[in-house]
Amino acid sequence: MIPFDLVSLDLLVDIADAGTLTAGAVQGNMTPSAASQRIARLERSVGQPLFERLPRGIRLTEAGLVLATRARVIRRELKAAVGDLQALEALERGSVRLGSFPTASASFLSDALKDAHRTWPGIDITVRSALRPELLDMLDAGEIEMAILWDYDWTEETATSLTLAPLTVDETVLLVPAESALQDGVTVRSLGDEHWVTRNGGHPAAEILARSCAAAGIVPRIAYAAYDYQEVQAMVAARMGIAMVPRLAIATHRPDVRIVAFGPAENIPARRIHLAWPARRTPTPSMRALADVVTRAARLH
User: Fold this and answer.
1) Torsion angle, CA of 197/200/206/207, rounded to 10 degrees?
2) What's this model's pTM, rounded to 2 decimal places?
3) Where in the numbering of this chain does the HTH lysR-type domain appear (predicted)?
4) Which one, 113, 195, 245, 290, has least CB within 10 Å?
5) What is the CATH number of domain 6-89?
6) pLDDT tens digits along 242-279
């Protein structure tokens, strides 16, 4: 394969367009001597002369015409590539594939996406909602480029192959019927006689309840195990019990339930929420822009 270099091909087009080596060298911002040396090396690489030297100027040989025609195409494509790269940097175009989990999507991510679509309408954003293990698998497989992830102190360590940017800490609160006598500053020990609504299937909310009650020396009486937080709200409203929930999970809640804060000394586990992407990957301009609006929205909630 002939080793071409872009500067020499660009110079070939300049000389062909200008009609003389000297004028072509000026267009290429080099001296006539440097231009002559480059063309000589190019001809040696090709193994054929590229110009006929005339008394007044030059004329392309057949080989020169073939190469100059192709070089013009390359020049146009490179200019188009520069334009595309500038558009990406200016956020006029681009794409991001993001992963999220339901409570993040229904709270701060919604605000972030509205901001992103309003500010950068040319960026194509797709979001896939999934559970934490699935999000980690999708990141590893390259199916998504970034993901909003949560963890607790006891959660298995996130793969060191990920870069994690903190977004927020989602505190755990108590959800009670609207008419309940319970007030802010409540202790877990004082709730020993209560019935509880929790999440089923090994959900982290069930783990929080179990750990918090164990630390307070009480055994929770589970009255209902729900599949989602809407169901949790409905069962609390129906007075089936009270519930420990992440605050983001009830950012919008029913009028017949209300939020009660635990006392500051209770040390109820809270989930940390991060934005993650593969450590091997340098974020694109579109990824950086989306990360900024997601971070801003998360800190406002």
Assistant:
1) 170
2) 0.72
3) 4-61
4) 195
5) 1.10.10.10
6) 999 999 999 888 999 999 999 989 989 999 999 999 98
